[in-house]
Write a structure and sequence with these properties.
Radius of gyration: 14 Å
Order of helices and strands: EEEEEEEEEH
Largest sheet: 7 strands, mixed
Strand content: 35-45%
Helix content: 10-25%
Shape: globular
Number of strands: 9
Number of helices: 1
Length: 115
């Protein structure tokens, strides 16, 4: 996508341009308007509807600011899914990405890693 992304490394907070920091901010993240569905689960198996295994963020530099793209690579009902959050005010709210290349590549990686 010709953008650089910063990865949450599992230890150091990942701050996005809207002021949210992940991992702490993940507890405030909505999924299509619903709370309490998403959480950090790097082992893939967690207690959430969406068990997040990786977080990547890109902060835009062009107005209107703040402006960010945050991807959550997760498992939902045991299947890989990529959620995206581009909210810039109010509650953080993610939804499944429409980027089919990203979705299919994550599915391929997830499938290969479970073989």
């Amino acid at each position: 996508m010709y953008q650089s992304y910063e990865q949450y490394d599992g230890q150091n907070e990942l701050k996005v341009s809207t002021g949210i920091t992940y991992l702490d901010g993940l507890s405030k993240e909505l999924v299509e308007g619903q709370s309490g569905l998403i959480g950090w689960a790097p082992s893939v198996k967690g207690d959430y509807e969406y068990n997040v295994v990786a977080i990547y963020n890109h902060d835009e530099t062009e107005p209107p600011l703040p402006n960010r793209i945050t991807y959550f690579f997760a498992f939902h009902n045991g299947k890989p899914v990529v959620l995206v959050d581009q909210s810039n005010n109010g509650d953080p709210d993610c939804h499944p990405t429409t980027n089919t290349d990203l979705e299919s590549n994550f599915e391929r990686i997830a499938t290969e890693s479970t073989k």
